[in-house]
Amino acid sequence: MKIINFQFLLVSASLILPMITPAFHKSSMALAASTTNYDQPIINQQLVVNKSEFGVKIVNAEGKVNFFPTTTVPLKEGDAYGWRITIDNYQGKVKWREVLTLPQAPETWTTENNKNFSISKDGKTATSTRTVTPVNGVIENFWTIAAGDPLGKHQIEVYIDERLIGTFAFEIVPF
After folding, report:
1. How many domains does one find in the chain?
2. What's the predicted TM-score (pTM) here?
């Protein structure tokens, strides 16, 4: 009887612990949906955002990538700006959607993956969708500054399985 009670206690704890653990973290939370096909994003899994940050990514002369958190981005061709979001204890792939809104349309839009990319009719908003496996719990996306990119206030919204998990307001200023 003691073994059965102990097993019952373990099963109960394993079911209850994921529901109460987020209360002990100072993090934002979103829920996503689940399938058993691991080639697809896992959904209905609790999603806990541990950290989200926006900044510039610069590669130095030795090829080392440096990330500098900021909300002011110099308009310097070749540098990149973007976001990183750290997710706690998430297993499998994550499908995210990013909506980038500019103050005016750039001269051109380019991306590495045109298949999952669309531009609004006025040319000021781009929507990108990706399915990725987080590396050390991190998902990220960066844009490379190009000739013809506009100065001014920009905004990026990041969604996972249609839930807003991050909004980044920033300004591109003259270099």
Report:
1. 1
2. 0.72
